[in-house]
Write a structure and sequence with these properties.
Structural class: alpha+beta
Shape: globular
Number of domains: 2
Number of helices: 10
Strand content: 5-15%
Bound molecules: coenzyme A
Largest sheet: 6 strands, mixed
Length: 261
């Protein structure tokens, strides 16, 4: 049998930064397990983003074979410390993530899905730009972020002439540093949305970390304080910032970035 690859120094550093993020996600999964009686391996699959973080891709209802082995070990782990060690070990051995999900069109930190039948396009954000100059939302990087969205808009106009609107759904629209990337018509449309919110992706979990993937102590504290009262039917409500939905015509983006409609 081939031994697992030795983790790189970067990976070792990264896992140390991410310990708090893993611990926080496990605490929510444990609470779900207590409330529902489901094994921890099952709640960790559904309510944390570990399936993706450990290199198994987006969970779409069927767990990867490697996950099943991990879930069994997790269910057998003696205590919270052992559960956390297991998560860190899994992450250490996981392959590097390669940016945006397959099937999306990527423009730096942003990506869009293919157009929907109603002419709208959903956009997504991933932090792919943290360095000594700061995180992806630093003021000095605003022109870079705007250039990415402008490139996306140009691409959509040329490649998919049927596109009429851009849509977003994210906690990030609470942040002025994120909103300033977009046209006023788009950010002014932001409104809370109802309905089930999945917790097995980056989505709401993204607000619990900073641009170096270190857990944000204030957010972790707020989330932890909400766990005793968590409704197992609506666990996403323990997150301090809920998702906001946005929409605006493609033409509003063209005007804002000076692309000429
Ligand atoms: C978004 C992200 C880069 C912010 O990280 P950061 O290190 O705080 O970045 P910045 O320092 O550039 O922060 C930008 C601003 O947002 C504020 N902010 C960031 N996260 C916040 C949070 N959870 N709650 C309140 N304010 C927050 C910061 O205080 C800062 O405010 P300022 O401009 O007034 O100083 C980081 O949380 C991240 O990478 N998250 C994962 C990405 C994600 O959520 N993807 C899913 C999208 S649905």
């Amino acid at each position: 049998m081939t031994p697992p690859p030795t983790p790189s120094p970067e990976r070792l550093e990264r896992v140390e930064r991410m310990r708090g993020y893993f611990a926080l996600q496990l605490s929510l999964a444990r609470r779900m397990s207590d409330l529902t009686g489901e094994p921890l391996g099952a709640t960790t699959l559904r309510y944390t983003n570990f399936h993706r973080r450990f290199g198994f891709g987006r969970w779409t209802g069927e767990a990867a074979a490697g996950w099943t082995v991990y879930a069994e070990a997790l269910d057998a782990a003696a205590d919270a410390g052992a559960q956390l060690s297991l998560a860190c070990e899994m992450f250490l051995r996981a392959p590097d993530e390669h940016g945006h999900e397959t099937g999306r069109h990527a423009f730096g930190c942003f990506a869009c899905e293919p157009p929907k039948a109603d002419g709208s396009v959903n956009i997504h954000f991933l932090n792919l730009d943290t360095d000594a100059g700061g995180g992806p939302l630093a003021a000095a990087k605003l022109s870079r972020r705007q250039a990415e969205i402008a490139a996306m808009v140009r691409f959509l106009r040329e490649r998919f002439p049927e596109v009429t609107h851009i849509r977003g759904r994210s906690w990030l629209y609470h942040l002025a540093a994120y909103r300033r990337v977009f046209p006023p018509a788009y950010v002014d449309s932001r409104t809370p949305y109802d309905g089930p919110v999945t917790l097995h992706g980056n989505g709401l979990w993204g607000q619990t970390i900073d641009s170096w993937e270190r857990v944000r102590p204030d957010v972790a504290q707020a989330l932890t304080a909400a766990l005793p009262g968590m409704d197992p039917q609506a666990p996403w409500k323990v997150f301090p910032l809920q998702g906001l939905a946005t929409v605006a015509p493609l033409s509003a983006f063209e005007t804002f970035y000076g692309l000429g409609a």
